[in-house]
């Protein structure tokens, strides 16, 4: 009996162990299947446009988790196509509009406003986020693709803020190494001082931080390229011969000399083409001589070396007008230049012509031009707190 019992018990144990082994294998197979499905789903998501992914976030919690993952968001952003965004205030209908050119559907984003009485303008754009300002110095980030917005604390120094007031501009930038978005704000120093002070706000933080000052007054809102914000400066209405640089990771300043040329005359501006800092230089006089614009590109490996890339003939618009191009952007293989508040021109590097030609009829409202990439970078607070 004992031997029979032992045999029965042994048999049961063997059957039981087989069942347990089968369950483990089944679970492992199921987990492998889930992982395979997850990997396939991630690859599909990588190929979808940002506006589609913004809707996919609302399907279920697992999709929301995946589409809010820091690594996924920035990998998807790398595949985005740079576009051209025009921002304008339609004051007659009390609304702000941002139109993305070369959108297959001609889509127009209507941007929300912090308050109906405020007139919004765009300081700059970075990673699909717009850095918005108003006449009182408030700062807000907006992702027009997802519709999310984030109001930042009012800067400590607004200096009677206006988008046209001297030295009161903001620039949104991104630190590739730390994956942090930061806003730099310059404001006038003490009365009679030739310095401009700077404060920085890290998105997800709580307060602005003083990071130092620069000599001179910034003459533009700054150009953000690869984690650094660049500013042209002016000393008492005289253009300087250098570019001030703010490294957003270290929050330290540096200085670059402008490339040697016969003259600048104050008629130059900064831009970004092909992911590099560029200097736009306008030559010519008011006595009928042809006017041209040269685009010099900063070499990546040497911040003192510039390469001449483009030479463009500017249209003769008004004899009495000596203008500086407001911006130059790459879009759809062409260079787009805003000359006046309502005019957009285009230059095709692949054509035989060096002429800059008007790209579209004059706008009804003044607008500003910005590079733009549709993205799903979230703006809810816990996303930035890791």
From TrEMBL:
Matches recorded under InterPro entries: F-box-assoc_dom_typ3, F-box-assoc_interact_dom, F-box-like_dom_sf, F-box_dom, Gal_Oxase/kelch_b-propeller
Basic residues composition-biased segments: 15-26
UniProt domain F-box: residue ranges: 36-76
Pfam families for the chain: F-box, FBA_3
Region annotated Disordered, chain positions: 1-29
Protein's name in the database: F-box domain-containing protein
Species in which this protein is naturally found: Lolium multiflorum (Italian ryegrass)
């Amino acid at each position: 009996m004992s031997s029979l019992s032992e045999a029965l018990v042994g048999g049961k144990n063997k059957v039981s162990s087989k069942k347990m082994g089968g369950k483990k294998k089944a679970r492992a197979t199921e987990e492998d299947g889930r992982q395979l499905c997850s990997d396939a789903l991630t690859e599909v998501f990588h190929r979808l446009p940002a506006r589609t992914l913004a809707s996919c976030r609302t399907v279920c919690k697992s999709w929301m988790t995946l589409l809010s993952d820091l690594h996924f968001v920035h990998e998807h952003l790398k595949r985005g196509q740079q576009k051209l965004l025009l921002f304008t205030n339609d004051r007659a209908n009390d609304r702000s509009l941002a139109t993305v050119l070369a959108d297959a559907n001609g889509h127009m984003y209507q941007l929300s406003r912090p308050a109906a009485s405020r007139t919004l303008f765009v300081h700059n754009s970075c990673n699909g986020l717009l850095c918005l300002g108003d006449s009182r110095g408030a700062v807000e980030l907006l992702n027009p693709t997802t519709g999310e917005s984030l109001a930042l604390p009012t800067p400590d120094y607004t200096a009677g803020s206006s988008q046209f007031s001297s030295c009161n501009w903001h620039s949104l930038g991104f630190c590739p190494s730390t994956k942090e978005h930061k806003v730099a704000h310059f404001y006038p120093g003490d009365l009679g001082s030739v310095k401009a002070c700077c404060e920085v706000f890290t998105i997800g933080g709580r307060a602005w931080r003083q990071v130092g000052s620069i000599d001179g007054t910034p003459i533009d809102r700054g150009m953000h390229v690869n984690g650094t914000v660049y500013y042209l400066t002016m000393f008492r209405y005289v253009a300087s011969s250098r570019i001030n640089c703010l490294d957003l990771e270290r929050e330290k300043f540096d200085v670059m000399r402008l490339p040697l040329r016969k003259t600048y005359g104050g008629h130059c501006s900064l831009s970004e083409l092909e992911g590099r800092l560029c200097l736009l230089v306008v030559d010519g006089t008011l006595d009928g001589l042809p006017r041209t614009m040269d685009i010099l590109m900063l070499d990546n490996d040497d911040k003192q070396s510039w390469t001449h890339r483009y030479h463009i003939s500017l249209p003769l618009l008004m004899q009495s007008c000596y203008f500086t191009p407001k911006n130059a952007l790459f879009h759809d293989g062409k260079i787009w230049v805003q000359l006046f508040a309502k005019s957009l021109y285009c230059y095709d590097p692949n054509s035989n012509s060096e002429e800059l030609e008007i790209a579209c009829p004059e706008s009804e409202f003044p607008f500003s031009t910005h590079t733009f990439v549709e993205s799903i970078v979230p703006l809810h607070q816990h996303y930035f707190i890791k």
